[in-house]
Amino acid sequence: MNINIAMIKKAFGIVFISMVFIGCQDMDRPELGNYPIDENPVGGPLKFYVPFDNNTTDPLRFAVDNIRAKFPTDNPLTQTEGINGKAAQGGVAKKFISYSSANDFAATAASFTVSFWAKHKAPTQTEFAFALTSDNWAKAAMFVMVEGTTANPVLKLFVDEQPSTGGSDKWFEWVNAKAVPGIFDDQWHHYAFVYDGTISKMVLYRDGVAYEPLSQWTNHGNIKFNTSKVGSFRIGGSGNPEEGWMNSWTGALDQFRLYASALTAAEANQLFTGKL
C-alpha cells in the first residue's frame, strides 16, 4: 500500500493549527442563552424615554427620545444640572419641547405610568409638565398641571379618552387633605403616576411614597385613548398655550418616561433610588 507522506504531514499540520486556535479562544464566554435580557425589548412597556443626558449643545439631539430615536421638532428650552446628568430647564413663556408623537404610547396604554423628575419653586400661575395633544377643550388627551402655593400645593392629572359617542374623562387630583407636600421646595423629586386598568386605580409615587388621589375612576377599566384624535407630545407645556391660564413649565424636568403598563411600587421605587 502506498502511503503519501506529504498528505499525512499536511493533515497533522491542520490538526495542530486548529488546536492552537481553540486554545486561544476565550473559553469563559457565556453561551448565547446566558446573555443579559434587554430590560425594554422591542415592543416592551417603555414607550417613550428622554433622559436629557446626551453630551451635546444641539437642543434637538439633547432631547431625543431613546426608544425610537425620535428627535423633537422643536426644543427652545435650555440645559441645567439634573438629578442624573443634565436636565431641561423651563421658563420660556408658551414654549416647550415638541415631538410629532409619543411613539405608540396612546395606542397601547391600557394601563400606564408617567414618570419624571421635577424641581420647582412656588409658582405664580398654573403650569403644565407635559401634554399629549388632542382636539378637545384642553387640546390634550392627557396632561399634568400644578398650581397653588408652597403651603397648599395642587397637583392634577387629566385624562380624556374622547370616545366617538358620549364622554369619558377624569381628573385625578392631589389637593387639600390629599395634597403632596414639598412640591415647590426647589429640590429634585421623583413622580410616577401609575394607572392600573385591571383594578381602575391611580396611585402617585412621589419619591417612592404612595399618594392616592381625591377620587378614583371606579369601575372604569382600561384606558382607551381615541388615537384618531391624539396628536403631538409636549414636555414642559400645555396643549393650548394661547389659553391664558395654560402656562408652560418654569421649573426643571429630567428622566421623562411613558410606560404602557402599571409599574409596581418596587419598580417605581427603583426609579427613585436609582435616580433614573
TrEMBL record:
Coiled coil: none annotated. Keywords: Disulfide bond, Lectin, Signal. It comes from Flavobacterium fluvii. This is Concanavalin A-like lectin/glucanases superfamily protein. GO terms for molecular function: carbohydrate binding; hydrolase activity, hydrolyzing O-glycosyl compounds. One of its GO terms (biological process) is carbohydrate metabolic process. Residues 110-266 form the LamG-like jellyroll fold domain.
